[in-house]
């Protein structure tokens, strides 16, 4: 009986020491996510400001690559379980931002200024939602619209 109890204690300790899911603490998640947002926002800020639809199409093509890479890096982070649902919602909004960049690129390449403006308005609303959710998660750099 005593050996069985000792075995259960060892199993319980092993389970407690290694959850196997490698989730980050809330603070570590916030630090790593904010560092990624800062890095990719800086890359986006380096892109030239377009003055024509052709230039917008070219810039959006570059921006999409940067935003796609940044979103993938954010998705690779494992938030604490209590934040997972909010993080999933926030990542979905970021994915929509990437789709909006591509839609804007296509509209600009087609010379459709009205569609570009419509996509830009929708993207701004989406970004505001993403920023609000990022703040609720505890992020700071990721919660400021600077071109993502």
Describe the overall structure.
This protein has a single domain (24-143), classed as Four Helix Bundle (Hemerythrin (Met), subunit A). Helix content is 75%, strand content 0%. The protein contains five helices and no strands. It has helices at residues 2-17, 26-45, 53-76, 84-109, 113-137. The N and C termini lie far apart (61 Å).
Measured on Cα atoms, how large is the radius of gyration? 21 Å
Shape: elongated
CATH topology: Four Helix Bundle (Hemerythrin (Met), subunit A)
Structural class: mainly alpha
Give the class-level CATH name.
Mainly Alpha
In percent, how much strand structure appears in the residues? under 5%
Using the 3D structure, state the CATH architecture.
Answer: Up-down Bundle
Which ranges are low-confidence, i.e. pLDDT below 50, for 5 or more consecutive residues? 1-19
> Number of DSSP helices?
5
How many individual domains? 1
CA distance, first residue to last residue: 61 Å
How many E strands? 0
**String of helices and strands:** HHHHH
Biggest beta-sheet profile: none
Mean pLDDT: 87
- In percent, how helical is the residue content? over 70%
């Amino acid at each position: 009986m005593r050996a069985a109890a000792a075995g259960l204690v060892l199993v319980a300790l092993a389970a407690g020491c290694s959850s196997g899911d490698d989730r980050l603490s809330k603070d570590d998640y916030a630090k790593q996510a904010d560092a990624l947002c800062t890095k990719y926002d800086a890359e986006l800020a380096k892109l030239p400001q377009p003055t024509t639809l052709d230039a917008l199409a070219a810039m959006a093509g570059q921006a999409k690559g940067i935003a796609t890479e940044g979103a993938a890096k954010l998705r690779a982070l494992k938030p604490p379980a209590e934040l997972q649902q909010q993080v999933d919602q926030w990542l979905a909004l970021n994915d929509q931002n990437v789709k909006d960049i591509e839609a804007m690129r296509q509209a600009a390449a087609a010379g459709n200024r009205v569609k570009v403006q419509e996509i830009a308005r929708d993207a701004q609303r989406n970004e505001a939602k993403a920023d609000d959710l990022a703040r609720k998660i505890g992020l700071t750099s990721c919660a400021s619209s600077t071109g993502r």
